[in-house]
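Morning run. Coffee first, then this:
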Amino acid sequence: MHPSQHPGEPGRPSAPPPPRSPAAEPEAAAEPGPSGLPSPPAPYGPDPGGAGTAADPGVSRLAATVERLRREVREAHAAADGRALIELAKGIFVERLRCSPAQAARELAVLAEQAGVGRLELAAEVINQAARDRVAEAAVRFVSEAGREPGRRPTPAVSLRSAESGALAASDTQAAAQSILEHALAPLDATGVAIWSAGPDASLTLAGSAGFTGEEARRWRYVPPGVATPARRALTELRTVWFDRLSVSGLPSIGRHENPDGGRVAVPAGTGGRIQAVLEICWPKPLEGPQPPQVRRQIEALAELCAHTLEAHQATGVAAGPAEAPDRHWPELVDLADGLRDAALVLRPHLDPEGLLGDFRIHHVNPVFIDIGGRPRSAILGALVLEAYPLAAEASGLFEKLEHVYATGEPFRGDHMRLTTLVDDVPISSAASVSISRHGENLLLIWRVQDEAARLASLLQHAQRLGRLGGFEEHAGAEGISWNSQMYALFGLPPTARPVPLERLPDYAHPDDAITIGRFLRTLFHHRRPASTAFRMQRPDGVTRHIRVVAEPVLDQRRQLVSVRGAFQDISAQHWTEVALAATRDQLAHTEQESAERSRLALQLQHAIMPPTRGPLDTDGLRVVVRYRPAETDSLVGGDWYDVAVLPSQQILLCVGDVAGHGISAATSMVVLRNALRGLAVTGAGPGQLLTWLNSVTYHLTSQVTATAICALYDPRDRSLRWARAGHLPPVLVRSTEAGPLALPRGILLGAVAETRYEELRTELEPDDRLLMFTDGLIERRDRSAENALEQLISTVGSPAGDLETYLDRLLTHSRSDTDDDTCVIGIQLS
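And here it is:
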């Protein structure tokens, strides 16, 4: 651990963050031991104040003495761990401040008193700032995130550093596992931990464990390659694997019978691109959902600590298994490569300055090696893989396979793998069978470039199998018939059966196809021309298949028949597909005809009620002009409607509305609402009451129909206009050269609720006023809101020119709507 300079005062470590308030501390916090570490909970044992006291005071005193000795042992261990952290922090102060150990101890005590924290917690913070490693990162993030949670005590710095100190000071990996469980995982409610060592063959060896019985640890001391466990998944997938309940996964693992429904996590870790260890943690209860990020980082830091600990113990020969020298496999691996008849390369990992795997160096090439680009062995030996084969990382994925085998130890076998290299900037590709295996720190890469003739023969065989195609050649005379294996499958015959000559083909065909086959045979044998036909084959096993046969005669120089060669193909799937397509085509044609008929009926119904053109209405000094523009597409027949009528009270009914949806349903609903409103209007009720009644009709007498509408009554006696709206756009009043919408009365759309009331407003019209009532098809656009579209309309209608008919025609012509919806416009002008 190398200390690094801190920002702040030169030569002096930066002060730790301010202490947390007492309110943030948990009520049941553990009492600190002599070193400042929380004392672990007491194990189960006799209760000095229980029933045993009354029965036998001597036994109670003995139990109390045993309990006191246990507590003293735990406190002694905690004190030793705390002293190790404090001594390490003092060493950092000595190096930074250039002072004596005594002065460093006083400086640590002063800073702890000023910050209001214990010496142990401050020591862990100083070590984190000096180390800046994965443990420090996890501790700092945990403190910063846990500090925002009420009642959460941020002590991971002490826990992680104590676990690290105990693991590094442990005599073996077993003791390291116990230290990690006691200091770092017990506060997370974990009850078991296993450290697995990854072998070169992707096997797993239990290097250390804690929280499990000795018998359970012996049962799981070794996991062979290929056995699926949580640790195996983490090793092969190179990622952290979480299980809320281990029993749900169905994977066996250490301690499963003790905690079948407990949570489990397996974390891979290693150095230099090689996975050396897998840390597996066991909880007694199921995990509730994803764990917080700070807990995940803490567990990943512990896994990395396990990898470094395992590496250190293997290097000194302390690990559970025998230590292996890095080059132990080198001579044997070279001899193995030289004895192979295929091209073989021995690769060693090449690490970058940060200690991460960057590439593999080719340290040995066997004598029979043939480069796929035709280069000599000397051009390959000693080079990096990505230098010799720069396309290995992209075109073939070879480099990714090398990384996976080196990290996990799991061997790789691949057939027909495409290997590509550059020769004079020209890519050269070859298909090869590739094998990769790890031997200690080395990789053995073997490839066999496939022979072109064998590759083409295999390709042809697979093509015939996939295409259900069989080839034959029938010789003239007594030379016999040659079939490939697919022909026997087509005819439903065993491979030991005699091939069927073409002249016996009618015996295997449907009787109705005899004339077709006879014409095929005459063309082939009599006219000696290529021929083809399709027929129904009736096989001996009772299966009927649709077969196409294609054949051609082979003639000598005298045009004598030498042989006939050709192919049979099973086209049953194609035949039934064509039958299904024909039926589907007929059904689609029928559906299209029905849809067109429905659209035609809806359009006729719409035009019958609201024709696109209608003459103006002149009555009592009021001129009313209506324009209706149907949708441009017949399939979009909508529910826009309007109505203008003189009532018995001499008032003029003006209404416009829009039913949601398109098609015959919208058109019929529009008819219901329009006729209902006209019938209700003869009662003499006002616009608000009319819309209230129309809402009841919409809600109760239609099937889930909603609509918007405006209802207005013009009284020619006082030139007043009373109106109400149901979720519709407001009318626009043009007076002189100014235009603006009328005030909006309250009212929701029709059919939304069973009972509602609509507000009614009154407006007095003046001579030459023009009033526009319209549906949203006039202004609606996909790229803007209805409010913006209404403002655009108001800006264009403020200067009326010409008569009312011309004015409305120009308004429809220059409409900027782009939704192809129906449009209704009622123009009113007072003379």
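The chain has five domains: 1-16+29-132, 171-321, 330-450, 458-570, 610-830. Good start to the day.
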